[in-house]
Amino acid sequence: MKVISYNTxxxxxxxxxxxxxxxxxxxxxxxxxxxxxxxxxxxxxxxHFAKEGQAEVILVGCGAPNRGMGWYHAVQMLEDKCPSxxxxxxxxxxxxGAGGDSPAGQDFKAWQDETEAKYGTKFTASLEExxxxxxxxxxxxxxxxxxxxxxxxxSIAHGAKCIYLEKPGAPTVAELEAMKNEADAASVEVLMGxxxxxCKYVRKTREFAETVPGSHVTFVSxxxxxxxxxxxxxxxxxxxxxxxxxxxxxELALLVSFYDVSVDNIAEVVxxxxxxxxxxxxxxxxKEYTDFDKIKFTIKTKTGNExxxxxxxxGGSDSYATVxxxxxEEVFRYYMPDEEDKVHVKELQAKYxxxxxxxxxxxxxxxxxxxxVAKHTVDGQPAEGIATIQIAIDTLKVAEYLTPILQExxx
Length: 411
Ligand SMILES: NC(=O)c1ccc[n+]([C@@H]2O[C@H](COP(=O)([O-])OP(=O)(O)OC[C@H]3O[C@@H](n4cnc5c(N)ncnc54)[C@H](O)[C@@H]3O)[C@@H](O)[C@H]2O)c1
Hints:
It is built from 13 helices and 13 strands. It has two domains: 33-194, NAD(P)-binding Rossmann-like Domain (Rossmann fold, 3-Layer(aba) Sandwich), CATH 3.40.50.720; 196-357 and 389-409, Dihydrodipicolinate Reductase, domain 2. The strands form two sheets. Strands 7, 8, 9, 10, 11, 12 and 13 form a seven-stranded mixed beta sheet that branches. The protein is α/β, with parallel strands linked by helices. The protein has helices at residues 33-38, 69-78, 103-119, 148-157, 173-185, 200-210, 229-238, 243-246, 249-258, 339-351, 357-361, 363-379, 389-409; strands spanning 55-60, 85-91, 122-124, 137-141, 162-165, 189-192, 216-222, 266-271, 277-282, 288-301, 306-312, 319-324, 330-336. The radius of gyration is 22 Å and the shape is globular. The longest helix is centred in the C-terminal third of the chain and has 21 residues, at 389-409. The protein starts with 32 loop residues before the first helix and ends with a helix. It binds nicotinamide-adenine-dinucleotide. The site of nicotinamide-adenine-dinucleotide has 21 residues, from helix 2. Nicotinamide-adenine-dinucleotide (NAD) binds next to helix 2.
């Protein structure tokens, strides 16, 4: 087997601030009347951080330091990794509310105190406490998936011009469709945090596959859970929306974005029975959950595309993609992180030793998505490669469609 691997240049964005200390932007965006009314309740003095050319970012749902996705987004923006984003407000409903006394709540408080002192960032427990926007406002919503529909409504009511919504956006297609309608009616744009859409291994694989007639791409995603009923039962309960809506949703978004996959365009889906495994396990609450611990399947579309996805809860901590030729021989494989990015991962690990490992492997992609969305919020130019909420709806539809079909095939 001849496997070609490539090392390429990094795609890191410059962390240099592009802006002078000119007075911050107060023009070039509009505040509608509903917004003004909704924010009238605010009685505090406004802070002035976003500068000309920057979006005023509100992080909604920060989560615990070292654990929450929102926290890592915050760290990247505070460290000026996204030149078009100024993180001015952090809204944290749980750890500044009912969860404040927990150990994670205390961690959050210590980080809040440090961040306020170092950067002047304003923390609130709800969007109600925000002043009206002073610059094009971008709400980055990273709450629990079930809370995100409500947080989107509140972000619209409180002046967001654009919303960066963490994947999958909502627990169900129906909720996500309602969110899109609400945003459309308010002329607010919603872009998604599907970071694999912009990452290097996906781009390299797609580019290579283009050069091999009749080739076949497989996207592989691994988690590092222990292969025990206790560990997987805990995983099944915590991610009760199931493997396709939770773990493999990034890969489904790739299929929708780049392979024309949609419920209407799927001609055939076939599970790899040898690889795949479905189990019914008890979660910590004692309730039983049925889910895939490993799944591999191939989709053929009516328009002639063919692509595979493989996800394994106990397969390790990497993601990669392969290209096989017409004869079924693997001719290309590209990992995330590649050799070059592993150096950067090590540096980040040393800086944040207790943080979730996936923050580091996807670090450049989180920066890319945030920077493109923030820049788009300011200048309205297309946010290249960023998934829209319509892509997210189509992705969630595919997940809802595939789950019972694959379960049936694996019985
Ligand atoms: N793009 C990616 O690679 C990626 C990775 C992980 C998560 N995500 C997405 O980011 C979002 C946030 O995920 P997360 O893992 O940071 O979630 P999380 O549960 O750690 O935190 C999200 C929010 O939940 C609230 N919360 C935390 N503990 C709570 C409790 N015990 N009771 C009630 N509320 C509580 C907090 O307000 C917190 O801000 C989700 O939409 C998720 O799908 C994306």
